[in-house]
Amino acid sequence: EAQVTQNPRYLITVTGKKLTVTCSQNMNHEYMSWYRQDPGLGLRQIYYSMNVEVTDKGDVPEGYKVSRKEKRNFPLILESPSPNQTSLYFCASSLLIPGYGYTFGSGTRLTVV
Amino acid sequence: AQTVTQSQPEMSVQEAETVTLSCTYDTSESDYYLFWYKQPPSRQMILVIRQEAYKQQNATENRFSVNFQKAAKSFSLKISDSQLGDAAMYFCAYRSGHYNQGGKLIFGQGTELSVKP
After folding, report:
1. pLDDT digit string, tens, across residues B45-96
2. How close, in Å, is residue B99 to chain A by CA atoms?
3. Distance from CA of A54 to the nearest CA of B (A)
4. Of A25, A91, A113, B74, which sees the most CB atoms within 10 A?
């Protein structure tokens, strides 16, 4: 089944404790992206990648890191999480064809206390 | 920069009735694509419908249709014969048609739709 696998689904952590949210896709998509969803703000892009070893900042990159060492994987790293990073996070992938829709992971609900 | 605006945070509809969700966008591009995504309580993002800007004909998918007004930069979603399973958050989204703009999907703020039995 074509899908984006994102883990974990829920995560509660403490301020400053490094964490990684994993994302993997099996559709050979070039484009991968991370979004955060907050009430009243919709989904905002954190980082994106257009291919292996090619990553760039989105609209809200502060406090996040990513890497793209393999085409299928695009982990999101929070090196020192803070409470303002409490949010719902989505990984998504797509072909680099303008009209192509995204395939989304199932989301990660992150709470930083 | 492109923006997408959904001015209705919440909407309600009676089961079997029709509801229209509004979306406006701002862009200077002529080539782009517009999407509606549905997010039920399961949180999964589900593509509902897609519209190419170069097409004058409004897209339709079963009970879902759009009213695309390019000059007015408006892209509303009409849900006919509403069902309880239509209750969800709905997001309008924009994607540039230019390769050098990357693949970024720009989202509106979302509209929470409730369906009354």
Report:
1. 999 999 999 998 999 999 999 999 999 999 999 999 999 999 999 999 999 8
2. 7
3. 12
4. A91
